[in-house]
Automatic annotation (TrEMBL):
This is L-aspartate oxidase. GO terms for biological process: 'de novo' NAD+ biosynthetic process from L-aspartate. PANTHER family: L-ASPARTATE OXIDASE (PTHR42716), L-ASPARTATE OXIDASE, CHLOROPLASTIC (PTHR42716:SF2). InterPro entries: FAD-dep_OxRdtase_2_FAD-bd, FAD/NAD-bd_sf, Fum_R/Succ_DH_flav-like_C_sf, NadB, Succ_DH/fumarate_Rdtase_cat_sf. Its cofactor is FAD. Keywords: FAD, Flavoprotein, Oxidoreductase, Pyridine nucleotide biosynthesis. Belongs to the FAD-dependent oxidoreductase 2 family. NadB subfamily. It holds the Pfam family FAD_binding_2. It catalyses: L-aspartate + O2 = iminosuccinate + H2O2. Pathway: Cofactor biosynthesis; NAD(+) biosynthesis; iminoaspartate from L-aspartate (oxidase route): step 1/1. The keyword Hydrolase does not apply.
């Protein structure tokens, strides 16, 4: 007999929360590893949310910048949806109670970041946008009667039935395990920074949702495209590095090397505000030598007001950015690729949906434009939630189901080895020979732990793409003409 089953949403970041809220009044079970916004990259977002708000700006101009950053590998229809829905997404967040920063005349304050041809980034609490937005979403989810929240829950398996996905397997913090059936399973598990030696992502961004979808046979897309943020705070011994927001460069900060030479001079017409992959390669090359620094001293008095998060992170590590340059290095930041979805989050497997960073509908192309991913979570989360609202709530029923478990994890030493491997082979500069070596090692690691299998999928995708494109920069590709010493050429 069939019964009403909930929509299962896995992940309590912006994409999962927005999807869950937008599905009202359909019943939703929201599964999260941590309470509140802990563990979600969304809460760490510093720059803000891009939307064409100012006079003279338009969704078309925002779309142009999005596609230029993405090396025109973007799905134009998805970019259109994103950029046209942006202003409405900001309004929706404001109705939920998000107070974006405003000018004295009451208009929204707009910042500028790399790759944007003008100021169009709304922000909240200065550089605390993610925390402010997440606080409003978490409060709304707590008050929503259609959402049942479970924290301390790791989703480590899927229930498969009739060629589709009909539920999840969960392990609670106390070690107890169970399965939960749903009329739809939404993976909103975020990114994959945890596969790399240095990342701006929180530890929960381990790629487990993507790994599960791949193991279940879901189609993936663009797995090779990993964005490195050029300026994470270079703190020795840390895996998750604090971010030094790009908005600082928007406000006039400059990158330089150990000799004080400007890193971006003559490299790109936008200089320090060049697209992230271009800046990341310069900083990467400098870090292979004596290091790279961001000089933000000129920002002066407004540091405390506009960049409280960066200031606090720097001071916590003994650096005062008001009086000394900030040591920086690139860190794995955002995965453009992921589980292949359409505009409504449908994957190739019936019953399985994906949204946010774990998903790939092509909107970011080969490189994400800054401040487009919180927007992605809101725009595509709302679309998906609204679609799921109308889904048949009957559980699939029937006895013939099986469980697909994530399997064992790599141990600490194996994880460290894999992260080093991934950073060398899948970093901002890639070569076929290093990728081949990484593939061999990942083959071996894949027999031991699920992270190895996921890493192998990424490396295989990078090997298949022989030409440089966006964030995938092959030093040895047929058309690549990059010199690690500096010159910027389109490849
Ligand atoms: C430091 C930093 C700054 C950024 N700044 C900006 C910015 O200014 N503007 C912008 O647009 N983007 C920014 N980004 C990118 C953006 O924050 C993320 O891409 C976006 O928030 C991803 O949202 P999400 O909901 O997909 O994932 P997340 O917010 O990461 O949420 C994923 C959720 O899934 C949970 N989870 C993961 N695996 C499991 C599992 N197996 N079982 C149960 N739960 C699980 C996690 O605990 C978490 O709750 C930034 C990212 C970082 C790291």
């Amino acid at each position: 007999m069939s019964q009403t089953a909930p929509i299962i949403v896995v992940g309590g970041g912006i994409a999962g929360l927005v999807t869950a809220l937008a599905a009202a009044p359909a019943p939703v079970v929201l599964l999260m590893r941590n309470a509140g916004s802990n563990g979600a990259a969304s809460a760490l977002a510093q720059g803000g949310i891009a939307a064409a708000h100012s006079q003279g700006d338009s969704p078309a101009a925002h779309a142009r910048d999005t596609c230029a950053a993405g090396s025109h590998h973007n799905d134009a229809a998805m970019v259109d949806v994103l950029t046209r829905s942006a202003a409405d997404a900001i309004d929706w967040l404001q109705r939920l109670g998000v107070a974006f920063d405003r000018n004295d005349d009451g208009t929204l304050q707009l910042g500028r970041e790399g790759g944007h041809d003008r100021s169009r980034i709304v922000h909240a609490g200065g550089d605390a946008t993610g925390a402010v937005v997440m606080a409003a979403l978490v409060a709304a989810a707590r008050n929503a009667v259609h959402i049942e929240r479970h924290t301390g829950v790791d989703v480590d398996g899927l229930m498969l039935r009739n060629g589709g996905v009909s539920g999840v397997c969960i392990t609670r913090r106390d070690g107890s395990q169970s399965a939960l059936e749903g009329c739809a399973v939404v993976l909103a598990t975020g990114g994959i920074g945890g596969l790399f030696a240095h990342t701006s992502n929180p530890p929960d961004a381990d790629g487990s949702g993507l790994a599960l979808a791949i193991a279940a046979g879901a189609d993936t897309r663009d797995l090779e495209f990993v964005q490195f943020h050029p300026t994470a705070l270079a703190v020795p011994g840390l895996h998750s590095l604090p971010l030094v927001t790009e908005a600082l460069r928007g406000a006039g900060a400059h990158l330089h090397d150990a000799q004080g030479r400007a890193l971006m001079k003559g490299v790109h017409p936008l200089g320090d505000l060049a697209p992230r992959d271009v800046v990341a390669r310069q900083v990467w090359a400098a870090c292979e030598g004596e290091g790279a620094w961001l000089d933000a001293r000129a920002i002066g008095d407004v540091f405390t007001r506009d960049f409280p998060t960066v200031l606090a992170a720097c001071l916590a590590h003994g650096i005062d950015p008001r009086s000394q340059p900030i040591p920086v290095r690139p860190a794995a930041h955002f995965h453009m690729g992921g589980i292949h979805t359409d505009a409504d989050g449908r994957t190739s497997l019936p019953g399985l949906f994906a949204v946010g960073e774990v998903a790939c509908n092509g909107v970011h192309g080969a490189n994400r434009l800054a401040s487009n991913s919180l927007l992605e979570g809101v725009v595509f989360g709302r679309r998906l939630g609204q679609c799921l609202r109308d889904i048949d709530g009957a559980a699939a029923g029937g006895r013939s189901f099986k469980f697909l478990h994530r399997g064992p994890s790599l141990d600490a030493a194996q994880l460290t080895r894999m992260r080093h491997l991934m950073t060398q082979a899948m970093g901002p500069l890639r070569t076929g020979s290093l990728l081949q070596v990484a593939l061999r090692d990942c083959d071996a690691l894949a027999c031991v732990g699920w992270q190895g299998a996921l890493a192998r999928a990424l490396v295989s995708a990078a090997l298949r793409r022989r030409r440089s494109l966006g964030a995938h920069f092959r030093d040895d590709g047929p058309l690549s003409g990059h010199s690690t010493k500096g010159a910027w050429r389109v490849a």
